[in-house]
């Protein structure tokens, strides 16, 4: 009799364990949809409604994809994750409306990698920062448009240095600035901006303490205060094959900051084109600087190696 009872108990225990497993498991890939529900498991056939709802059901290192067009809400990221608003097919399908708040807040672990791609992030004028990066190893932004925020489109100011890559993206109409980069400790932020546009903000790019920003094949235009600013002794910006036009100042180096230019046009800015304001502006002597008010001057040249 006791053997039969033990067998029954073991069978019941197995059923309980099997039924509990799916509830606690996290999928490596989840989905959101405009007709989803955050009570769902976030599978392709039963998607969630918001990024915030999906992220808790997505394993570290996993991916959240959008099935269809829609606004999927602001989200806080605390682990390695990919958010793809193109449904894995490319193009921008999904969006985030972040009225009065941060669009994407990143406060992850030191080794975590965060990838944001194929997404539109709109602060509708009252959102604070489009993406606010506080901690993590690296952030990759690809084919993303960030616009209409009261502070920065991208605020990249980790306590400990990290890496940022912005590719084929647009930062537009952010009152505090397009990109602001600095780090408190642990080395130097390494920031790369490629094939992107930063426009209609206050200062397009600010490289502060412990920050090295490299910009190539990009356009910086129509920023009211200025284009590119290195404003700390450990803040640097390098521009290659880029255009800085119709801003307030063109490029400025202050507080011992350094700006380097090669194959770059600094043209038709309403303020000083090359503004060495207590810093250094170094060129390869192969740039086009014209039509600024005034054009300004470099402080030194870069010797080809």
From TrEMBL:
Keyword Signal: yes
InterPro entries xref list: Beta_helix, Pectin_lyas_fold, Pectin_lyase_fold/virulence
SUPFAM superfamilies assigned: Pectin lyase-like
Keywords: Signal
Annotated signal peptide: 1-25
Recorded superkingdom: Bacteria
Domain Right handed beta helix: 187-295
Keyword Signal in record: yes
Pfam family, one: Beta_helix
Protein name, per record: Right handed beta helix domain-containing protein
Organism, as annotated: Rhodopseudomonas rhenobacensis
Taxonomic placement: Bacteria, Pseudomonadati, Pseudomonadota, Alphaproteobacteria, Hyphomicrobiales
């Amino acid at each position: 009799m006791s053997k039969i009872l033990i067998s029954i108990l073991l069978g019941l225990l197995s059923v309980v364990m099997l039924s509990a497993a799916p509830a606690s498991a996290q999928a490596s890939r989840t989905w959101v949809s405009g007709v989803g529900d955050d009570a769902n498991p976030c599978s392709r056939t039963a998607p969630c409604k918001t990024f915030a709802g999906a992220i808790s059901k997505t394993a570290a290192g996993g991916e959240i994809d959008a099935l269809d067009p829609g606004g999927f809400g602001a989200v806080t990221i605390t682990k390695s994750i990919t958010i793809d608003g193109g449904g894995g097919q490319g193009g921008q399908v999904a969006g985030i409306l972040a009225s009065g708040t941060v669009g994407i807040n990143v406060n992850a672990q030191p080794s975590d990698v965060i990838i944001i791609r194929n997404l539109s992030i709109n602060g509708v004028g009252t959102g604070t920062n489009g993406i606010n990066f506080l901690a993590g190893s690296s952030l990759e932004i690809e084919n993303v448009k960030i616009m209409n925020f009261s502070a920065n489109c991208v605020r990249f100011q980790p306590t400990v240095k990290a890496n940022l890559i912005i590719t084929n993206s647009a930062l537009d109409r952010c009152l505090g600035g397009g990109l602001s980069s600095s780090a408190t400790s642990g080395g130097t932020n390494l920031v790369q901006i490629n094939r992107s546009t930063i426009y209609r903000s206050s200062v397009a790019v600010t490289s502060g303490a412990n920050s090295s920003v490299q910009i190539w094949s990009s356009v910086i235009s129509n920023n009211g205060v200025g284009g590119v600013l290195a404003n700390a002794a450990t803040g640097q910006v390098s521009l290659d094959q880029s255009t800085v036009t119709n801003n307030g100042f063109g490029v400025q180096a202050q507080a011992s900051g350094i700006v380097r230019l090669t194959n770059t046009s600094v043209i038709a800015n309403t303020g000083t084109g090359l503004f060495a304001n207590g810093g250094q502006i170094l060129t390869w002597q192969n740039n086009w600087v014209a039509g600024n008010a005034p054009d300004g001057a470099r402080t030194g040249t870069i010797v080809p190696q």
